What does this fold into?
Amino acid sequence: MANLPKWGVYLSVAIIIFAALALNILRRPSAVATLPVFMEEARDLAPAHATIYIDLKGAVQMPGVYKVPADMRLFQVIRLAGGLCVDADVSRINMSAQLFDQQAITIPFVQNTSEEQGNAHDDASDAPLKISLSQADAATLVTLPGIGPATAERIVADRLVNGPFERVEDIMRVSGIGPAIYEGIKPFVTP
It folds into this structure.
């Protein structure tokens, strides 16, 4: 810069300042439509910068992807989606489940019984529905006793690496699932 005329130095400094300001403006987050929040929940929300994306499917009024505060629970996202459909099976979901980023949650519909289909009633329809370890998503797996979000994610990851579970006992190959948890979930699952 010693060989530049004085005006050249000023011009160089001005260009650097302009570039820094332009870069700062470009780094600001874009305006994103915010989701409505119920007043009683507003005081419980995480800071605005701690957000996650949830893919809500199934028996809800407005399925879709929702950008929500990181500490939001499933029942709160369901409210944002307009609530449950009348034929939602709430007995198969944990409404208070904690959510995590990129989680896909499918709210199940109530299954038709054999009587509703015009068939003879049998004892099999009285049995509780079992969760398939080889097909359930993480949101469904957390409804099992002793299975939290981290363990559910490990189950899903194990299936991707090792393939589907051939026997219910195979669940014990997942880190964090030992004989006690296995015995607790055994009545509720199929391979």
Notes: The helical segments are 6-27, 39-42, 74-80, 138-141, 149-162, 179-185. The chain has two domains: 8-111, 128-190.
